[in-house]
Amino acid sequence: MAPGNQSESSGSIGQSAIDDPMSPYFLHHSDNPGLVLVSQSLTGDNYSSWSRSMKIALSVKNKFGFVDGTIAKPSEVDSNLLSFWTRNNNIVISWILNSVSKEISASVLFSESAANIWDDLQERYQQSNGPRIFQLRRDLINLRQEQQSVSVYFTKLEALWEELNNFRPLCSCGRCICEGVKKMDTHYQMDYIMTFLMGLNDSFAQIRRSSLQQDTVNHISVETWHSRLGHPSIRVMDTLKDRLQYNTHSLDRYKPCLVCPLAKQRRLAFIAHNNMSASSFDLIHCDVWGPYHVPTQNNQRYFLTLVDDCTRFTWVFLLQHKSDAYKFVSKFCVMVETQFLKRIKAFRTDNAKELAFTELFLDKGIVHQFSCVQTPQQNSVVERKHQHLLNVARALLFQSRVPDKLRESVFGCLAFASTLAAHRDKLSPRARACVFLGYPPGIKGYKLLDITRQEIFVSRDVIFHEDTFPFLSITPTVNIDPFPSMVLPLPLNPPNIDTAIPTSVEVPHLPDLPLIKSFTKEPSTSK
Predict the structure, then answer these.
(1) What is the model's pTM?
(2) Do 93 and 23 reside in the same domain of the chain?
(3) Residue 8 falls within a domain, yes or no?
């Protein structure tokens, strides 16, 4: 082969090696020199766990061949592959340097290959296992359950025991016929169980006593261990089975434990299906909210909410008493039949007594669906609607600061309503200052509060100033105590803490009103 062809072939091999994700020369975009592969750096006495973690990490990166010597340095003839090898070797060196302490990093910084660094660290620190074995043995002896749960205590014991197992010599020839290796493994398992039993609290003394009286713990069933350890879950029992060596032949995972449900059972999760009816009025969600401690002008403390499942259209009715719900639901059914020419098929409510419309629904053929006791999640559509209504009401209330007794669909901005010609002369005011309260049902107008006369009326000739809220300028009459935790004598004349509507409100002058957002709204007819 000519020299030019050899160079071309070498280049194609090198390029295919770096582009193939299965090749050890392939570098992912996340493989950078600053990457840290293990959580704990090598300090000298933790070489066993550190080397195990590094082997796992480098194997995942497909780079372990650069430290064990299986991927040797190419000859200088193959310049492309040598360049790829050098790049990967330096990447692995940087990963090793990032995973050791500063003192150790300084001692291996000038090594030319990752394999030399790996062999140097192994030669230096693998021989000093005595102090680590001594530390592990002492930790196992001193390990106690104390305030920990059995699973947490077992997890700590497992970590120490597994690391100690790495220092124990094992036979790997596969030719032993005297079963000495099996007996040695059984001895290690018994030693592990004894260590586990020694660390348990005194509340498990009976368990230790009964376990030690057995000829071998291998004959203890999983049910017995399940009862002794305080009825842990199946997942915990699966974790313990390799160490406790219980008889797995008697394990029946589907056999119910009569104690576990009584001690640990919780309510089942609620899965949101978000199913909606195919047509309007196929299903109506219904609930009553209240009572509220401050009544409306008409002495109403409750409100009834009806939500159509298909369209999510909502109707809200104010109630003086919960028992009024029957009257409004009856009228609602008549309204649906008259206005929409449809009949309600199903109603969904909770188990409240005021929502038991038995005779009404029997006469109209409506199916009444109930939610389970203390399970509002099954009536979640109207429950979430209640939350939304209260969120909006609070936002409008805090925005306008309208007093409690006017909290029914309050907007609270400043408005000027035209005066009627029959009640004025040539020099009388043409408008009066008001506060916008809402939309009255069945009337093409606005519900307003006259600030001066303290009366509520309806008018269609209204100009709004939506950036001005008259009640924001009212100073609260309640005295705020700056020292609420101090006990002081009561005053002779305690202040009046009523939050009634003030007798006079200072109305801003027209020249001071903002020029923007001053327009006339076109009223709409409420259904």
Answers:
(1) 0.42
(2) yes
(3) yes
